[in-house]
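In the design runs reported in the main text, the only information available to the sequence generator was the tokenized backbone. The following block is the verbatim input for one such run; it is reproduced so that readers can re-run the procedure and compare outputs position by position.
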């Protein structure tokens, strides 16, 4: 069995201190600045798109942004997830620096590799403990998913953490939208709506659903055990992740197809869980109805109230 709490290393308090509230603005600022510089460098006429000249680096940048956002959403095993978010959050602007200023980018990349080796070395004892305490890979992932669901329910009770969650969900959408002009810079800016019209209109609808769910969730407040709020939270998560997957489908098609497959499996899992809850509710109501009918009908026989007339 995997323990619910993994003993952390000596520097675990320092590693976990980088909460989403502190990391996300820094990464967002640096990424926004570098994306603006990318626009100045590649948007002039007769300039090839960075997705053509640096296809591998730009694809890695998209993957890094997604990994960073996912690591911020994960609250179990805080030392490991904090290390992942630190590595991916610093790698994303570094990849843009490789495109903008290659020599400076390679120098920073060497420093990043040394920093990554240090974090991985410090995390090795915990990884070994996870490997030794888990009897199978499926058991580890089941524990991880159940822990994530529990943490998501707890987070929903706090307004500040709820705002941080929406900032995390919206971060990859904003970054990917900023990449679209660089992807289609040799065409008209409306080109995605011509080449991927169905995908882009679905993205617009998914974004509107996400914004509407966000507004409703804010209106509902922070009440505990609110089924309406839990449902709206699930809808906002599904719509935001769908919008992200659709943008990735336009920018990096192979990765986008994989994300949509995972999103479909996640949707099926949530629908199955909802059906199980409805089935349990129906069985409970059916049992209560049978007990009530038995109590009300106990001792009452059909012949008790029959009126017998004398002959």
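Verbatim output:
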């Amino acid at each position: 069995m995997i323990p619910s709490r993994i003993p952390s290393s000596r520097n675990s308090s320092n590693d976990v201190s980088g909460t989403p509230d502190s990391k996300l603005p820094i990464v967002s600022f640096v990424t926004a600045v570098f994306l603006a510089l990318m626009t100045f460098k590649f948007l002039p006429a007769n300039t090839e798109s960075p997705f053509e000249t640096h296809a591998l680096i730009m694809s890695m940048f998209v993957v890094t942004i997604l990994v960073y956002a996912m690591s911020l959403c994960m609250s179990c095993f805080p030392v490991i997830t904090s290390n992942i978010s630190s590595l991916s959050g610093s790698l994303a602007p570094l990849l843009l620096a490789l495109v903008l200023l290659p020599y400076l980018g390679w120098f920073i990349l060497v420093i990043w590799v040394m920093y990554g080796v240090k974090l991985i070395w410090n995390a090795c004892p915990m990884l070994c403990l996870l490997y030794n305490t888990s009897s199978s890979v499926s058991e580890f992932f089941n524990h991880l998913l159940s822990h994530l669901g529990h943490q998501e329910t707890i987070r929903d009770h706090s307004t500040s953490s709820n705002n941080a969650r929406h900032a995390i969900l919206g971060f990859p959408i904003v970054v990917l939208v900023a990449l679209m002009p660089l992807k289609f810079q040799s065409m008209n800016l409306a080109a995605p709506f011509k080449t991927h019209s169905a995908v882009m209109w679905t993205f617009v609808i998914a974004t509107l659903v996400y914004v509407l769910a966000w507004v409703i969730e804010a209106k509902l407040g922070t009440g505990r055990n609110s089924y309406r709020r839990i449902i709206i939270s699930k809808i906002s998560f599904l719509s935001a992740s769908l919008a992200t997957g659709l943008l990735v489908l336009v920018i990096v098609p192979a990765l986008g197809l994989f994300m949509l497959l995972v999103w479909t499996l996640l949707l099926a899992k949530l629908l199955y869980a909802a059906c199980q809850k409805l089935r349990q509710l129906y069985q409970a109501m059916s049992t209560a109805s049978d007990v009530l009918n038995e109590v009300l009908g106990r001792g009452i026989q059909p012949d008790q109230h029959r009126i017998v007339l004398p002959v």
